[in-house]
Each structure stands twice: as structure tokens, then as C-alpha cells.
Amino acid sequence: MNTEIIEYNTALQPYYEQLNIDWLQEFFAVEEADKWMLENPKEAILNNGGHILFAKRGHEIVGTVALKFSAPGVYELAKMTVAKTARGFGLGRVLCEAAIQKAKQLGATKVILYTNSKLQDAIHIYGKLGFEQIPVDKLEFVRIDTMMQLTLNTYHEQA
């Protein structure tokens, strides 16, 4: 089944929130900063020039990713998750690639992300897309121990 990437609208907020809460509860814990970001996507992401994308298969929303404005030319890849029932089909990579393309459209020169070293599958995807590990510059969430960045002129769609 084909995957369609669609932009956020207010009707999709419950999917954004629930997909991320499910993922956080599976791997870590839901922190107060997570709750606020998931319950208030307009204030947390969209009003500051960010975007939220969704992966849709048929009539089902199966994944999401946020692009959070960080600084001029820099966007943060955040809150990327795929529903447990839809994992193993490459949707994480599809979402990541869609977010990178969106960042390029927005004029970004760099995409950063914060993650945890135990998420080796995700780190592997990021690495294949050209992200490189760099020293962590902030600890917004307890679970963060890894930071990566992608300089967009080094990104290759067929990586």
C-alpha cells in the first residue's frame, strides 16, 4: 500500500499526540515538556515556523514527524514515530526524508535532532541519510544523550 505524506491540520492533532505518547511509553516516559508539545502543537511547533507531517496509508495515520524551527536556516527533526503495527516497512525513513525535503523547501541549511543511543534502528536510518553525531548542546528531555546534524548540501536522496 502506498504511503501519502500529508501536512498537519487541527483534526490530526489527536494522532500526533497519541502516536507519540504510545512510542514514549514504550521506550521511555512521557515528560512534562512532551505533554505540552503534544497537546499544544500550534504553540510548540507551528506558530514558530515549524511543520508537522503525517504518514497516511489508506485511511489510517501511521506515523508523524515534526520540524521545529531552531534558528535561521536550522530546523530540528522532532517527535518522529511510527505506529507499532506499521513498523518494519520503511516508514521511519519515508518520514525522515519528507521532513528533510520540507526543511530544504523552507531554506534550511542544517537539520538537527536529539535522540537516545538505545534507539539504534533510528540512529542507523539517520546515518544512512547523512546525519553525523555531534556533541549534545542542550538537554530538553531526560532521555537525550545523542545529537546529530545533517548539513543539507551533503544530503543525497538515494543514500
Automatic annotation (TrEMBL):
Q: Which domain of life is it from?
A: Bacteria
Protein name, UniProt field: GNAT family N-acetyltransferase
Q: Does the keyword Transferase apply?
A: yes
Query: What InterPro entries is this protein classified in?
Result: Acyl_CoA_acyltransferase, Bact_Acetyltransf, GNAT_dom
Q: Which CDD domains match?
A: NAT_SF (cd04301)
Species whose genome carries this gene: Pedobacter albus
- Keywords assigned by UniProt? Acyltransferase, Transferase
| Domain N-acetyltransferase stretches | 14-153
Keyword Calcium among UniProt keywords: no
